[in-house]
Design brief:
The complex is a heterodimer. Chain A is an alpha+beta fold. Chain A contains three helices and four strands, in the order βααβββα. Chain A has a single domain, classed as 3-Layer(aba) Sandwich (Glutaredoxin). Chain A has a four-stranded mixed beta sheet with strand order 2-1-3-4. Chain A starts with a strand and ends with a helix. Chain B is built from ten helices and 18 strands. Chain B has a seven-stranded mixed beta sheet, sandwiched between helices. In chain B, strands 2-3-4-5-9-8 form a six-stranded antiparallel beta sheet, with helices on one face. In chain B, helix 6 packs across helix 7. Chain B is elongated and about 70 Å long. Classes of the chains: A alpha+beta, B alpha+beta. The interface between A and B is medium-sized, with 25 and 30 residues.
């Protein structure tokens, strides 16, 4: 079995107010859709808003090493799909 | 020593105002506190006004430090008017001035004698009587005592000692002796009981022995407990100079007491420097706050500004037992006596993006507000270290 795809939803202050609170539904929906191929977790902070602030694109989600900016549920799901192909 | 003080009250049944009044103030700089318990004549609104006036005036008199506590109490005693109907004084009071070395000055007029307990035994302190020059039936008792670690002082209104009066089992009421037995039993069962719990216990017991559990008088109990302080540390925000991360992480690790981290970046910093992994709570955050995380050796890990802002709100409005990260932080803070905040001065520019849907406060300001509410409302000892 291949390595699981890791999805990390940033729940730091900036991301949280910019919408990652809604991304938490991924914790429920992703395992239902992909079974155990993908693992979703919240993380305290990815530290991206502080280095990328001039182009603030929060909320951020990391799908393996790929950063999804201005993340939405759809964007994250398509990033996962791309990885799985 | 830390002085754990609290007062609990219940009002006479069918009344909508408390006839006893308790007020206290801590003076952090002088490491002392002043507390006053006053019982107003009668009950309800009238008693409420009388006791409130007596207690607040006495507190103001004493805190000015211009006259000694015994003199202040004497002036009040001599000037309290007499009720036209009952021919007795308008209110009675007990006042205490205590410092963290255990030095206490206590004055009493009309209230039941306070109880001083050391290792389960009741001590009988000496006192000086100052009879009133204007009223024959008034006499001030002035005590000077030296309390030691573990000592407790219990003050109450006559609603406690007279509870159950005329009822079935206790014809003369609970009285001081009955209260002492209750206290000694409770302390044997739970030697480290907090002042909040003990004062609540006294009030509940007093009400329970009243006929039909209806308080026939206002019941108040105030407890002082001299004990070692419970220390807590809250680390929030990354330090201004990143090269000092390791140093601060070490300070954090070496702290003796309970520890909390408020902030994602801060949590990552500690995790990196101390090589301790973080795991986030898998439950989806309820409401408007991110959930907590877990790290070995840290009692609580939360998000930063949003949680702190909410915590400050809860502390100010007196909301406890709320099941979210801020509620947990409130409990963490209130379970401690001495709280140190390590506040990182580094700002995250992204927080001040006008496009953000809510306003994010500056960390320093929230901590300042939180410190003052913890000191003024909850009598905590707070120190803040910026870094």
């Amino acid at each position: 079995m291949d390595k699981k795809i890791s999805v990390k939803v940033c729940l730091g202050t900036t991301c949280f107010v910019m919408g990652s609170s809604n991304l938490q539904e991924l914790i429920d929906t992703v395992p239902r859709k992909y079974g155990d191929k993908v693992e979703v977790e919240g993380v305290p902070c990815l530290g991206l808003c502080s280095i990328d602030w001039e182009f603030s694109k929060a909320p951020y989600v990391k799908v393996d090493d790929e950063v999804v900016k201005e993340a939405t549920v759809e964007k994250v799901l398509s990033a996962i799909d791309a990885k799985l192909q | 020593m830390f002085i754990d003080i609290d007062c609990n009250q219940t009002k006479k049944y069918n009344q909508n105002a408390y006839g006893d009044y308790f007020t206290s103030k801590k003076y952090q700089d002088e490491a002392k506190l002043i507390a006053v318990l006053s019982d107003g004549l009668g009950s309800g609104i009238k008693a409420n006004i009388l006791s409130c006036m007596t207690a607040t005036m006495l507190l103001k008199f004493i805190e000015g430090d211009q006259i000694p506590i015994s003199k202040a109490a004497e002036i009040i005693m001599n000037s309290l008017p007499v009720c036209q109907v009952r021919k007795i004084s308008y209110s009675t009071f007990s006042a205490i001035e205590a410092d963290e070395e255990g030095n206490c000055k206590i004055v009493e007029e009309g209230n039941p004698e306070f109880i001083w307990i050391r290792n389960g035994e009741v001590l009988q302190p000496e006192y000086e009587s100052i009879p009133s020059k204007t009223f024959k039936n008034r006499c001030l008792k002035v005590y000077k005592l030296k309390c030691e670690l573990g000592d407790r002082l219990i003050f109450c209104s006559d609603g406690v000692t007279q509870s159950g009066l005329g009822g079935g089992r206790l014809k003369l009421g609970l009285r001081r002796e009955g209260l002492i037995v209750l206290l000694q039993d409770k302390l044997k069962e739970n030697p480290d009981i907090s002042s909040t719990e003990l004062s609540q216990y006294i009030v509940n017991q007093a009400r329970n022995i009243e006929t039909d559990r209806l308080a026939k008088d206002d019941i108040s109990a105030c407890v002082l407990y001299f004990r070692d302080p419970r220390e807590a540390l809250v680390f929030t925000g990354p330090p201004y100079h990143q090269q000092k991360d390791a140093e601060y992480a070490k300070l954090f690790a070496n702290f003796k007491g309970k520890k909390a981290i408020a902030g994602g970046t801060t949590a990552n910093l500690i995790s990196r420097e101390l090589n301790r992994p973080i795991t986030m709570d898998t439950t989806i955050s309820i409401g408007k706050l991110p959930s907590c995380s877990y790290m070995d050796g840290v009692d609580l890990v939360t998000e930063g500004i949003l949680t702190l802002t909410k915590t400050q709100e809860y502390l100010e409005s007196g909301l406890y037992d709320i099941d979210n990260a801020a509620g947990k932080l409130v409990k963490f803070l209130l379970d401690s006596d001495c709280i140190t905040f390590m506040v990182g001065a580094k700002l995250n520019q992204a927080h001040y993006d006008p496009a953000l849907p809510i306003e994010i406060e500056i960390r320093k300001n929230i901590i300042k507000k939180m410190a003052s509410v913890l000191q003024d409302k909850y009598y905590k000892k707070v120190s803040i270290q910026y870094m």
